[in-house]
TrEMBL record, chain A:
Main location: membrane
Membrane topology: Multi-pass membrane protein
Transmembrane segments: 12-34, 66-87, 99-123, 129-149, 181-202, 261-280
Subcellular localization: Cell membrane
SUPFAM superfamilies xrefs: MetI-like (SSF161098)
NCBIfam families from the UniProt entry: 3a0107s02c
Residue stretches making up the ABC transmembrane type-1 domain: 62-280
Gene source species: Paenibacillus sabuli
Descriptive protein name: Phosphate transport system permease protein PstA
Pfam families: BPD_transp_1
Stated family: Belongs to the binding-protein-dependent transport system permease family. CysTW subfamily.
Single GO molecular function: phosphate transmembrane transporter activity
Automatic annotation (TrEMBL), chain B:
CDD domains: ABC_PstB_phosphate_transporter (cd03260)
Parts forming coiled coils: none
Any one GO CC term of the record: plasma membrane
Main location class: membrane
UniProt-recorded Gene Ontology molecular function terms: ATP binding; ATP hydrolysis activity; phosphate transmembrane transporter activity
Family matches, as NCBIfam families: 3a0107s01c2 (TIGR00972)
Cellular localisation: Cell inner membrane
Domain of life: Bacteria
Location of the ABC transporter domain: 5-246
GO BP term, example: phosphate ion transmembrane transport
Protein name in UniProt: Phosphate ABC transporter ATP-binding protein
Pfam families listed in its UniProt record: ABC_tran (PF00005)
Signal sequence segment: none
Length: 295, 251
């Protein structure tokens, strides 16, 4: 077989494989959208669910998902940034550092149901947090953290060594160089990764079943005092997220329109994650331009 | 000429490898001193010892003395950040910060407490003029430093180093990544700058050393083979190895 023919065959195979993947994704997305979009309405997005009757919405679940995401990120971002900066700039290369890196890798490949059970035993029971948003956020932190550490580390490693040296040679301290030279360059990468991680949090169900719980109290959207038990902002209340709701409605929903609700909620979930991804790209580019003054 | 930098019995090791072997020399003030020699001879290593950039490489051990303006810099108590303010550096690859042209130059002064807009403007202009770049960039100071040519970027890096008012400027093969015209501009610039700054340059290009420098040091395998006035070293070298190198027999 001559080289030209081999090249053509390889190209054809690669094009076919990627075409197949694109088709598969488009089909999946199309199916979810077509089934779900018909159910969209302002009412569906804002009203609480119904147990027996038709016409329930996903309002509290949507709010829970977003709130849980914010809580998780509030915990994950500072920890992840700190550990990532340490791993990239301060840790001396050696067996110990490699060991930490291995642990981080292992942590990131934990099955989420295991993280959920860990959350139930440690957070919900031993720490007595109960089924709560806080327990959910901490459980999600467990498997979001490795991602965040890796993203930060990669972001900092992607900064050209020359620029780091330029900062140091100008008399900047190590921390100042990291903070004002390296982090701005790394931020687009870190930000994009963070938003993608956020998308994962948004779609997570298994780790939340036993931590954030499968029910939501009747929320009073006029009460914004985080200490009051019916306030949407109370981090100690149980909270069913959108992904958990989809699972629950499909598994044990009694409402006559359970299938439609699940389809609608799935579409909302997918759309939100899609928005996250688009926002990640846009924001990453925007920040890069802003920090580097490029057009 | 008075010596600004005095190096005495300097040994430097990377792990087990001895990169510099008992170097002793003086670098005169307000003049250009060129380090020449084949790759791996230790010239860049010595240059980077002068602002303690070798500290960044794990496993580096240094013995002996380097005094700058009479002050020993190889002590654990040395304020390395302050040292690097006094000893500026320009690298092989132009490495402007990914910020605007203005911000690149204003960065150092701002760090050292100059915040008034007017003062900064003046300083930026002065530094860019000293680096012979002002006329080319004065109308678009807000543009990204990454958008100008390599030669301009390198002169911007010189301006950035000058903006913190150093005594010494180290140039680590600073023209080797540039085209001949940009190289010439920087060589001319160095001629100007030596009236105010002590310049130490590492170069691969012997002709450059001959054109630009007042003193030339020839390195081989971590040792100083010969150190003399540039004219003397190139016309009547006293060591056979120097002669072989400058006549192109090796290296």
């Amino acid at each position: 077989m001559n080289a030209k023919l081999a090249d053509r065959i390889a190209t054809a195979i690669i094009v076919a494989v990627s075409g197949f993947i694109v088709l598969l994704l488009a089909g999946l997305l199309g199916y979810i959208m077509v089934r779900g979009l018909g159910h969209f309405s302002y009412d569906f997005l804002t009203s609480p669910p119904e147990t027996i009757r038709a016409g329930g919405g996903i309002g509290p679940q949507l709010f829970n998902s977003i709130f849980l995401l914010v809580l998780t990120m509030l915990i994950t971002i500072p920890l992840g940034l700190g550990a990532g900066i340490y791993m990239s700039e301060y840790a001396r290369p050696g067996k110990f550092t490699d060991f930490i890196r291995l642990l981080v890798e292992v942590l990131s490949s934990f099955p989420s149901i295991v993280v959920g059970l860990f959350g139930l035993l440690v957070l919900v029971n031993a720490f007595d947090l109960g089924f709560s948003l806080l327990a959910g956020a901490l459980a999600l932190t467990v498997f979001n953290l490795p991602l965040m550490v890796r993203i930060t580390e990669q972001g900092l490693k992607s900064v050209p060594r020359e620029q780091k040296e330029a900062g140091l040679a100008l008399g900047l301290s190590k921390w100042k160089t990291i903070r004002s030279i390296m982090l701005p360059v790394a931020i687009p990468v870190i930000l994009t990764g963070t938003i993608l991680a956020a998308g994962r949090v948004f779609g997570e169900a298994a780790a939340l079943l036993f931590t954030a719980g499968m029910s939501s109290p009747r929320l009073d959207f006029t009460d914004w005092n985080p200490l009051s038990p019916f306030s949407p902002l109370n981090p100690m209340r149980p909270a069913e997220t959108l992904a958990v709701h989809i699972w629950k409605v499909n598994a044990e929903g009694l409402a006559p329109d359970a299938a439609e609700i699940a389809a609608g909620a799935s579409a909302v979930l997918v759309l939100t994650v899609l928005l996250f991804n688009l926002a990640a790209r846009w924001l990453g580019r925007f920040m890069y331009r802003k920090f580097t003054a490029t057009k | 000429m008075t010596a600004l930098i005095e190096i005495e019995n300097l040994d430097l090791y990377y792990g087990d490898f001895q990169a510099l072997k008992s170097i002793s020399m003086d670098v005169p003030e307000k003049a250009v001193t060129a380090f020449i020699g084949p790759s791996g001879c230790g010239k860049s290593t010595l240059l980077r010892s002068l602002n303690r950039m070798n500290d960044l490489i794990a496993g580096t051990r240094i013995e002996g003395s380097i005094k700058i303006a009479g002050e020993e810099i190889n002590t654990s108590g040395m304020d390395v950040e302050h040292l690097r303010k006094r000893v500026g550096m320009v690298f092989q690859q132009p490495n402007p910060f990914p910020k605007s042209i203005y911000e690149n130059v204003a960065y150092g002064p701002r760090l050292y407490g100059i915040n008034q807009r007017k003062k900064l403007d003046e300083l930026v202009e002065k530094s860019l003029r000293s680096a012979a770049l002002w006329d080319e960039v004065k109308d678009h100071l807000k543009r990204s430093a990454l958008g100008i040519s390599g030669g301009q970027q390198q002169r911007l890096c010189i301006a950035r180093a000058l903006a913190v008012n150093p005594d010494v400027l180290l140039m680590d093969e600073s023209t080797s990544a540039l085209d001949p015209i940009s190289t010439l501009k920087i060589e001319e610039l160095v001629q100007e700058l030596k009236n105010e700054y002590t310049i130490v340059m590492v170069t691969h290009n012997m002709h450059q050393a001959a054109r630009v420098s007042n003193q030339t040091v020839f390195f081989l395998n971590g040792e100083v083979v010969e150190y003399a006035d540039t004219e003397t070293l190139f016309s009547t070298p006293s060591d056979r190895r120097t002669e072989d190198y400058i006549s192109g027999r090796f290296g």
